[in-house]
UniProtKB/TrEMBL annotation:
Residues 14-188 form the Nitroreductase domain. Keywords: Oxidoreductase. Transmembrane segments: none annotated. This is NAD(P)H nitroreductase. The gene is yodC. It comes from the Bacteria. Pfam families: Nitroreductase (PF00881). InterPro entries: Nitroreductase, Nitroreductase-like. Belongs to the nitroreductase family. GO terms for molecular function: oxidoreductase activity.
């Protein structure tokens, strides 16, 4: 089993880089992969609707089918897993499940539950863009958390936006409820990522107002 690294949060953040060349013989024990996904799923989300789903591809034959869809980026084959981050376009349908459980666990009363559910349903009905915006925004939180969790356990990742979304949906039979927001490779690097320059805070931070 992979030895868990004892890194601080800061060290994990600084050590994570996008790796594009993987050792195709390296595996991730299922227990560790599940733990990475569990940690990713602890990300925050609007109304706690948990808009993400993780489509985990480890089957070599399916990864080969992903290769042309990802414009022949070999990493989708060589990495142990290629994970499709999905955003839930109908996350409002999860509201009753989330808040009924909260009431059952004594975390809120029925009046608060009903108010929150009405708020969610009203927002999704009144604003046609909110479903897509929230699906992308919240699934992105989970994707970043997944990458940090993987690095904390000694694995490498690369977020990928370069793929044919329509072909991906067709190949993996992704239901219309879910929007592919990101493709992530997870595995062991065969070639370490090169360091990248970062803007200084003087270029990034605007205090109070433009």
């Amino acid at each position: 089993m992979q030895t868990e690294l004892k890194w601080t949060t800061e060290q994990v953040m600084e050590a994570r880089h996008s790796v594009r060349k993987y050792d195709p013989t390296a595996t991730i024990p299922q227990g560790e992969l599940n733990e990475i996904l569990r940690l990713a799923a602890s990300a925050p989300s609007s109304w706690n609707l948990q808009h993400w789903r993780f489509l985990v591809v480890t089957d070599p034959a399916i990864k080969e089918k992903l290769l042309p869809i990802a414009f022949n980026q070999q990493q989708v084959v060589d990495a142990y897993a290629t994970i499709i981050i999905l955003g839930d376009l109908e996350a409002d349908k999860s509201a009753h499940l989330v808040y009924d459980e909260a009431v059952a666990n004594g975390h809120m009363n029925e009046s608060v539950r009903d108010t929150l559910i009405a708020q969610i349903e009203g927002a999704y009905k009144s604003n046609p863009e909110i479903a897509r915006d929230e699906a992308i925004r919240n699934s992105s939180y989970a994707a970043m958390q997944l990458m940090l969790a993987a690095k904390a356990k000694g694995y490498d990742t690369c977020p990928m936006g370069g793929y044919n979304r329509d072909a991906l949906i067709k190949e993996l039979n992704i239901p219309s409820r879910y929007l592919p927001t990101l493709m992530l490779t997870v595995g062991k690097a065969s070639v370490q990522a090169h360091p990248t320059a970062r803007f200084g805070l003087d270029q990034l931070v605007i205090n109070n107002s433009f």
